[in-house]
Write a structure and sequence with these properties.
heterodimer; A: mainly alpha; about 60% helix; B: Ubiquitin-like (UB roll); 6-stranded mixed sheet; 16 strands; globular
Chain lengths: ~325, ~425
């Protein structure tokens, strides 16, 4: 009995479908690449600098926090890198280095790690980082001011700001096709609509994000914008404009779909997505902020635990 | 191993192994030098409470009923002729205690005649006293006589196997048609239950039809053949959370067990050979027939399977089986498969937290909020998990762990929680 072979003993099931958190995060980064690369081409080296610094500082913050809190090092799962790249995509290309580093600190440490790391965060970490920066240093997020020295061969006015300040007449220059192809100013990775849509569809097909959230978010934006547009076409822009400007597309495919802060049951996902979409247009049209995606998604994040209580009756449940 | 498809949007479709009408002849494993029988009774090694009826060096005959204590219902049927070399306590999964009776096999086989004297007139008592330890392992409630707890009014015969890759029951359905027909008749006669339903996959409908039982088609997609799923889909009865199928008056018995009952009353000797699948490291499967009690290493040797350190040996299928720590573990009456996995590519669990991706919610056949449930189970909040997050609705199919991106041992947590809650309620009952 002494020289018996030793076997691995574990509990059923003994099969696994092979999916990993790492693959999931790296695929999300992959899906973000078309939009990011387009941003690099448009905005040049400053954009490369911002995104690179954002990714690397997010990873460093996570590593530091792992060490300080004496937990297992979790940077290998790619989640910090994903937070970093998303955060960089939302920033203007001219963001100063300290803004990026502060933002990723807030996103990774305050947004995610203090809640226990991946899976524990009640809010989307990227949006927590961005919201705090937007409130603290408002001027850096005024895209007209931030990108004043750029001339890329198209109207460099930030479309949503033009709409907010000058009404529908000011946005007649923006054709939907131009907006879709990234002929607009904005965040580094948020301007190229086609790239974001391709990335989003890739993630949906691969099953890495929940399509219900993206679709209902976009539907919420379209329907609400349509109602506003019908009620007063001179003051409120049409749904296509809202769909292709600001953070709408990156929000639908990359921000609202963050795993831990969004619901998993079918009906809650629809309510959550639609709620964020409706709120986005409400903030844009009648709120104080130029773009509403950040706060709309954060608000729905708060509602997530409550929403997820709406669920199908379990097998044999006696109520 | 079934991998996640590139298109992850679609729910994975995991289907049961379908056995062709051309039945593979099972490979018969020669009788080993030593067999071990696991008796479902706690062993009291010093005989303080009760004196054991069996002791070392007792000789046993093939087919002899071995009972450890006077007046106990638990017994095993010796599958060989020989002498007892040791009796020792054996601890199974989740604290189940057994007594392991090891028998050194003698050269000449001698048949025990006790059952032969009785078999002509089948009664419930004979079945209860001799046929609990037969291939296919009929549940105790089948022979309960209606006297013990819930009364059974329906018997469901599973002509399908409860786990993937296994074809033992399908094999019985095809190759033991006659024995099953006899078995169904005997069951009707001794239990007085007319409502006997045979569930079988669509391609075996003809074989199921001749059994004399009512026939019902079961879906080929996992986990349709788990008892609670059959109850809901085919019988239209949903088992309330926390209740068992027996509580609902339905008893599940495998086709192989029915075949064994039929054979026993037909031929006058208790069947001793268990048919099961050997699932090799490359995933290929061989039908095996071996005596109950044969240690698994004999099967690996006979089929040229090399067993290395850090491999994983599993009794049962990939989703619901249980892994064993010794290659001397015996084949039991309910062992439908022996599976071996190469240590190099094992699917192991991790201590990563739930990332709330929702894969488990999408795949759960019982619609349990697994993402919430597992958070409570991780924290040891079993009572709240049972009350608010449907712990007892779980059908234990293992699909949640199978798709878990974080590779959490979800099914393990669920079973542990049920076990712990069971212990608490037992302790409360005894202290009350």
């Amino acid at each position: 009995m002494l020289n018996q072979k030793k076997f691995i003993v574990s509990h059923a099931p003994f099969w696994h479908d092979g999916s990993t958190v790492t693959a999931r995060n790296y695929n999300m980064i992959l899906a973000a690449l078309p939009a990011v690369l387009f941003g690099f081409i448009s905005f040049g080296m400053p954009a490369v600098g911002v995104v690179s610094l954002s990714i690397s500082s997010a990873i460093v913050w996570e590593l530091l926090f792992n060490k300080i809190s004496k937990r297992a090092v979790s940077i290998g799962d790619g989640n910090a890198a994903f937070i970093g790249i998303l955060f960089g995509m939302l920033l203007p290309a001219t963001s100063p280095w300290w803004l990026v580093i502060t933002g990723t600190f807030v996103a990774v440490v305050i947004g995610k790690q203090i809640f226990g790391g991946i899976g524990g965060n009640p809010f989307n970490p990227v949006l927590i980082g961005l919201a705090i920066l937007m409130v603290s240093w408002k001027d850096f997020f005024d895209f007209n001011e931030a990108l004043v020295n750029y001339d890329l061969g198209f109207a460099m006015a930030y479309p949503l700001a033009s709409l907010k300040h000058f009404g529908v007449s000011a946005i007649s220059d923006f054709s939907p096709a131009d907006l879709l192809m990234g002929q607009q100013s904005g965040g580094i990775g948020a301007t190229f609509g086609l790239g974001l849509i391709i990335g989003g569809i890739y993630l949906i097909i691969r099953g890495f994000i929940r399509w219900e959230i993206s679709v209902s978010f976009l539907a919420g934006v379209v329907i609400t914008a349509l109602f506003f547009n019908i009620s007063d076409p001179a003051r409120y822009a049409g749904p296509v404009f809202h769909l292709l400007t600001g953070y709408t597309l990156i929000g639908a495919f990359f921000l609202a779909t963050e795993d831990s802060s969004s619901p998993v049951n079918f009906i809650p996902m629809l309510i959550y997505g639609a709620g964020a979409g409706i709120m986005t247009v409400l903030i844009r049209n009648i709120g104080a902020y130029v773009d509403g995606v950040v706060f709309a998604v954060l608000l729905m994040n708060i509602a997530n635990p409550l929403l997820d209580k709406i669920r199908p009756k379990a097998l044999g449940k006696v109520v | 191993m079934i991998k996640r498809s590139f298109i992850g949007l679609a729910k994975p479709r995991i289907v049961y192994e379908a056995l062709d009408i051309t039945v593979p002849e099972p490979k018969i494993i020669p009788t080993s030098k030593k067999v071990t029988l696991l008796l479902n009774e706690t062993y009291d090694p010093f005989g303080q409470k009760k004196a054991a009826l069996l002791k070392k060096d007792d000789t046993v005959k093939t087919g002899q009923k071995l009972c450890l204590y006077e007046g106990s219902d638990a017994y095993v049927i010796s599958s060989v002729t020989g002498s007892i070399s040791s009796i020792s306590p054996f601890l199974g999964e989740f604290g189940c205690s057994y007594t392991a009776i090891e028998i050194d096999v003698a050269e000449d086989e001698e048949m025990d005649e006790q059952f032969k004297a009785l078999f002509v007139e089948p009664t419930m008592d004979i079945a209860k006293n001799y046929l609990s330890f037969i291939p296919g392992n009929p549940p105790a409630s089948l022979f309960s006589n209606g006297s013990t707890s819930p009364s059974i009014d329906t018997i469901v015969i599973c002509g399908v196997d409860s786990d993937l890759l296994i074809t033992a029951n399908q094999h019985a359905l095809i190759s033991d048609e006659k024995a099953i027909r006899k078995g169904v008749g005997i069951l009707k006669q001794i239990t007085g239950i007319e409502n006997i339903i045979m569930v079988a996959p669509e391609h075996l409908m003809q074989n199921a039809g001749v059994s004399g039982a009512q026939v019902s088609v079961v879906d080929a997609e996992y986990p349709a053949t788990l008892p609670r799923m059959i109850m809901q889909d085919l019988l239209g009865k949903t088992v309330p959370a926390g209740k068992s199928c027996e509580d609902m008056g339905v008893c599940f018995v495998s086709a192989e067990a029915v075949a064994s009952i039929g054979t026993a009353f037909d031929q006058g000797h208790i069947p001793l050979f268990k048919k099961f699948n050997l699932i090799k490291k490359d995933g290929s499967s061989v039908m095996i027939s071996a005596r109950i009690g044969t240690p698994v290493h004999e099967i690996f040797t006979a089929c040229d399977v090399t067993v290395n350190e850090k491999d994983r040996i599993i009794l049962g299928g990939p989703m619901t089986g249980s892994s064993i720590y010794s290659e001397h573990h015996p084949i039991q009456p309910d062992t439908d498969a022996v599976m071996i996995q190469d240590g190099k590519n094992l699917a192991l669990v991790s201590d990563y937290p739930c990332i709330n991706c929702g894969e488990c919610i999408r795949i759960c056949p019982a619609k349990i909020p697994v993402n919430m449930l597992v958070r409570f189970l991780e924290a040891g909040q079993y009572e709240q998990a049972a009350e608010e997050y449907d712990l007892y609705s779980c059908v234990e199919c293992g699909l949640c762990s199978f798709v878990c991106v974080s590779r959490m041992p979800i099914l393990h947590y669920i079973k542990l929680a049920k076990y712990e809650l069971g212990r608490i309620s037992t302790a409360e009952a005894t202290n009350a």
